[in-house]
Design goal:
The protein is α/β, with parallel strands linked by helices and 193 residues long. It has 9 helices and 6 strands. The chain has a 6-stranded mixed beta sheet with strand order 1-3-2-4-6-5, with helices on both faces. β5 (148-150) and β6 (153-158) form a beta hairpin. Bound molecules: uracil (URA). Uracil binds at residues 45-49, 52, 58-59, 61, 63-64, 85.
Length: 193
């Protein structure tokens, strides 16, 4: 086992008993990551939902299954990506995590990024976007499909798959079409960088 994987495991183990914010009180499981610890692409979502909280794996509910289906249909394999969230525990009733909760959890995410050291970080939805790109006027609709470079890291925002659950059309210009285009572009960029 490499030092990176050992360090990630240690971090994961620490997170399992974390009580740095009140989300620990109602969680069933800490949802730390899924995927390959040396992947070139790191996806960051918002927070675990009900299914994730029960099983302990990010993006396995309806929205997550949709994201995974897009990824596999395009030709991604599980080796291509690592998935985490801005917070590791489920906010009650699926509300958005607060600034305090995100701050309390941030060191886990920063360490995950440092250790996985991906070529590109995919910001899945507005909560992840706001956490990494400091521009209050920037919406996910404006930001998606573009590369942002901050402190030598490359970030690529995409729609959150829960948004796509409401829009089914794959016609050019529609959310699902743009989502697919973005995932194709991300794979190409990861090969180029
Ligand atoms: N939505 C997220 O942002 N993350 C998950 O893990 C599941 C749903």
């Amino acid at each position: 086992m490499t030092d990176t994987i050992k360090e990630l495991e240690k971090l994961h183990k620490n997170a399992l008993s974390c009580s740095k914010c009140t989300l620990c009180k109602e969680r069933t499981k800490v949802v730390f990551y899924d995927g390959n610890c040396t992947a070139p692409i790191l996806f960051i979502g918002e927070a675990p939902g009900k299914n994730e909280d029960e099983i302990g794996i990010p993006f396995i509910g309806r929205a997550g299954q949709l994201l995974r289906k897009f990824l596999y249909d395009i030709g991604y394999t599980k080796d291509d990506f690592y998935i985490a969230n801005t917070v590791k525990c489920r906010p009650p009733k699926n509300r958005k995590p607060t600034l305090e909760e995100k701050k309390a959890c941030r060191h886990y995410l920063d360490k995950q990024i440092e250790l996985v050291n991906p070529k590109i970080i995919v910001l899945v939805g507005s909560t992840a976007l706001e956490s990494f790109i400091n521009d209050k006027k920037l919406t996910i609709t404006k930001a998606r499909g573009k590369v942002f470079e901050v402190d030598k890291r490359k970030y690529f925002p995409i729609f959150h798959p829960s948004y796509l659950l409401r829009y089914h059309s794959l016609e050019p210009g529609k959310p699902r079409y743009l989502f697919k285009e973005d995932l194709i572009q991300i794979k190409k960029l990861a090969q180029k960088y």
